[in-house]
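Late entry, written up from scratch paper. The run itself happened at the end of the previous shift, but nothing got recorded in the book at the time, so transcribing now.
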Amino acid sequence: MSERIDETVADLGSAESIAFETGDATIDEGKAAMSAFLDGFEGFKSEMSAQLGTISARVDALDAKAVAGSRPALSRAADTALPAQKAFSAFVRAGDEEGMRSLALEQKGLNTGSNPQGGFLVDPQVAAQIERRLRGGGSLRTVARGVQVEAGSYDVLIDNADLLANWADETTVATETTPPTVERISILLHELSANPQASHRLLDDSAFDVEAWLADRIADRFRRAEAAAFVSGDGVGKPVGFLTKPQLPDAAHAWGTLGYLTTGVPGGFDLNDPGDVLVDLVYALGAEYRDGASFVMSSRTAGEVRKMKDNQGRFLWVEGISDEAPARLLGYPVVVVEDMPDIGTDSVSIAFGNFEHGYTIAERPEIRMLRDPFSAKPNVMFYATKRVGGDVTDYGAIKLLKFSA
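Output as recorded:
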C-alpha cells in the first residue's frame, strides 16, 4: 500500500516539473499527467475505503463475539429471544403482523405466521409464564403425569396381565412365559381457548406490561377450565375426568373401573373414629403406588379433615413448613382441587392415589393467538388456544372415598 502512495506522489512530481520546466509547449502534457494522477488517486481512495471497511467489519465481529462469550448463558439466551419478544409486543399492541411473519421465515417449522392455521405462536417467554401458572396449585397438573406431543392424540400401551417368569436350574427345561395382554389407551387432544380483552388506551400505554397481563389472564382461564375437566370432564370436546370413570367397591373393582371405600355414614365420617377410613384408604392402594401418592380434595372437605385427631389428641393433618411444601395427611401430600365434590350424601369427595401413574395429561407445546380489534369494540379481543387432553392410564393407581353407607 505504501508503494502505491509513493508511485502516485512521484507521478505528481513529474507532472509539475513538465508543466513548469517546458512552459506552454508542454502544458497539455502536464494536464494529461495531472488528470492521470487524479484518476489514480480516486482509485486508490476507493481501494483504501474497501479495505478499511473489511477490517472494521472483522473487528466488530470479533468484539461482538468476545462480548457475547463473556456474558452469562441466560444473557445470551435473552439476546436470542429479544426479536421474538419485540415482534410479539408489536403484534399485541398495534396489530403489526409483519414482525411475526418475518420471525416465522427465520424459524421455519414453527408455523408462526399462518393465521388460517390458528394464529401466531405466543412469544416463548409469555408461554413459559403461562406454563408456570398452569402448574401452580388447584389443579391435578401438580401431581399427574404430563407429556408433550406433536400429534392429535397420545397413545399409552398398558400391560394388564402379570408377566409370568419361571425359575430354572441346569437340569430343568425352560418353559415359555404367558404372552402379555396389552391394551391401548388413546388420549385425544382438544382445543382449549381463552378470550381476554383490553382497551386500546391500555395497549397504547408503553408503561403497561401487556405480555405479563396476557399471560396472567390466559393462564387463569386455562387453569380453571383444565382443573374442572381433569376431575369431571366427559371427554366430549374436553379431557376425560377421573371421577367419570366407572366405580365399584374396592373389593370388586377390575381394570376399567376405579375402586372405592365408603365412610359408613351417608354424607359424613364416622362420629367415633373418623380418621380410620382414611387409614383404610391409604392401605387400599397397592404398595407399589404409595410412594409418590397424594390426597386430592376440595377446600371444604379439607376443612373437615383438618379437624381430625388420633387417640392421643394429635392432628392427622400437618401443615407444610414452607409455601412450596404442601400440607400432609397421614404423611402424604394433600392437593386441594376445588372441582372435587364437597362432602354430601353418596359424594366421592376424596381421592388417594399415585396420579403420576394413574392420570396422564397430554398437550401440544405451543399456544396460539389471534388479535381481534372488531368483535368487542371499543376493546381488543385476544383469542388464545392450546390443545390438551387427559385420561386415566392406570386404574389401580387411584382409590376413592365415597360418603355413603
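Residues 27-70 form the longest helix (44 residues).
(Scratch paper discarded after transcription.)
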